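Journal club side-thread
Mid-discussion, someone asked how the predicted structure for our own chain would compare to the paper's figures. Pasting it here so we can look after the session.
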Amino acid sequence: MKKNILLILAAAAALAGCKVDDIKTYDDLTSSRYIFFDFPRSATGVVDSMEVSFMSYKGAREAVIALPLKSTGYSTSDAQFYLEPVADLTTANASNYEVPASFTFKGGQVADTAFIKLKYSPDLDETPAYLALSLVEKAPFALGPSDSRVVKIKFHNQFVIPVWYENNGFVLSMYWLYTRATMPASGLDEWMYKLFMEANDYPDIPDDATLADIRPYVARLKEYLQEKKAAGTPVLDPSGQEVTIPYGN
């Protein structure tokens, strides 16, 4: 019995002397570094696409687009990461975009942003172009979830209803903001949106903007119309009627 006890104690001592490494989980910030695009998730998974219209950039010939990313793992040092076009998902000409050779993920952060540039050409007035960019697996980063390694960008110079506009029932509220009913709803949509953007000097309104966030822009639209009228150049809709906004004082 004494011999058996000694053997058990010896085994316990041996186990105590062994270093046991914790098994790191994918989300553990001390584990290997995985990089992935950080787009909002929906019921169908990661939304890995976005749409850009040059119409929202005040006639600009170039648009700088922010692509949010995240990384598991942690480092106090800057690290390089890379993006490359996905040929079979890209229809845009190389002259229509500019992607830096490399990007820097700043040290001490688990979230960062890659900026690319889209460039206007006349063909975008009629036909949208698509640019798909994939993260490249290269040290120190491994690739994150398979459904968030590629971002697909559709861009053009056509009217598109922004997410914030649609989410806040902006299309319907135009009948509250603009009392004229002489235009088809679809025409009213596009014409009023362009007027709204012009009056506010083409603001960058986030997709998650609420009606409370948008109200100051509507108030500015009313001021803009009043200024135009005071200057003797009232804003007229395509039917020739003056535009008025029954909002605010």
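Post-session note: The longest strand covers residues 62-71.
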